[in-house]
Design a protein that fits this description.
Length: 131
């Protein structure tokens, strides 16, 4: 089974953190996609290349450094041919950490909240106007 796109990145980030004396648990472990979700998009992901530290935050990362890193990760995502598939994977899992499909964890929480609100509105049906 091929590795998910960010797993090699996390392993590289973990090695770099260990070299700095950080504890190995500083980098959260990604959820591996279920076998049926393990699609060809993983192989096509641009992030599989060499941007190892961009997608997941080291522990105690200063805010300015985090924002800069996330913007750099989003630029990588913007040129990725499988960005939408990656984003949907992260929203369906849901992935709690990192930049996936051009969205940070906080941005994905907003998207999921909007989807839940929209689904609730649709399930209630049309509301009669008070009058």
């Amino acid at each position: 089974m091929p590795l998910p796109p960010h797993q090699p990145l996390q392993l590289a980030a973990l090695k770099s953190l260990q070299g700095l004396g950080e504890r190995p648990t500083a980098v959260p472990q990604p959820r591996l996609p279920d076998r049926q979700e393990d699609g060809p998009w993983h192989a096509e992901a641009v992030c599989r290349r060499d941007e190892a530290g961009l997608f997941f935050a080291p522990s105690k990362e200063p805010t300015a450094a985090r924002l800069s890193r996330e913007e750099a990760a989003k630029r990588v995502c913007a040129r990725c041919p499988v960005m939408v598939a990656c984003r949907e994977h992260a929203l369906l899992q849901p992935e709690p950490y990192g930049v996936w499909g051009g969205l940070t964890a906080a941005e994905r929480r907003v998207v999921l909240a909007r989807r839940r609100r929209r689904a609730a509105e649709l399930s209630q049906g049309p509301v009669a106007a008070a009058g």
